[in-house]
Amino acid sequence: MKVQLNTLWDWKQQLQRWLIVGILTLLVGLPFWSSPAWATVVEDIPNLSTSRSTWIADKADLLSVVTERSVNKTLSQISRQTGTDVRMITLRGLNYGETTDSFATTLFEQWFPTEESQANQVLLVYDARTNAPAILVGQDTLKVLPEETAQSIAFDNLLIPIRKGNYNEAFLGAGDRFAAVMTGQTDPGPPEVKATAFAESNFPTAEETNDTNSAVLVIVLLILATAIPMLTYYYYQRS
Predict the structure, then answer these.
(1) Using CA atoms, how far apart are residues 166 and 201, in angstroms rounded to an integer?
(2) At the N or C end, where does the chain have fewer CB atoms within 10 A?
(3) Cα–Cα distance for residue pair 239/5, rounded to 1 Å
(4) Tens of pLDDT along 42-75?
(5) Is residue 85 within 8 Å of residue 124, measured between CB atoms?
(6) pTM above 0.90, yes or no
(7) How many CB atoms lie within 10 A of CB 104?
């Protein structure tokens, strides 16, 4: 009986060590797991810098075929009428540590490596996972598309409809406002926001969801760390 108890105690200690190591490994790895396996990298984006027919790359699969065609038509007309190219990119997520701004900057500089080539370019990037847009405007284009207006298109024309789940409306509206402003028409401004539009929301943010999932995982592991040795002890006691 003494030998059996010693063996049981050794087993219990080994299980506890394994569980502690497993918990620590999981906790250390959580930040890396928060980066989705389907994250988009610059190499995933088709090179639109030389295309005269495709102006949008919907890598997040947010838009309908009809919307893509309509946005492509609008951006193509902008290019023909003004000589300035506007391109839009949607992302399904980014690697850990990457931001929409850093991604957009890397892509912009890769496609247009010199100030001269950047002068008449606009790049709008939207990351669906973090719900974060970024916009870059060439120096010459700022004369017809001021920085304040460009930021409003990115953060108002996109995000206001997106908060209601209207991705197609968001990109159609952004394209139409680009066209109006850059061709000298009256700026229609951002979409109107109703006072009650965001008053109540039961949907957690991406950060809240990640924090909740991490907390649940830690709690489950701690329960297992306590329960498994106890169950093992009772099993050997009965046998």
Answers:
(1) 16
(2) N
(3) 11
(4) 999 999 999 999 999 999 999 999 999 999 999 9
(5) no
(6) no
(7) 22
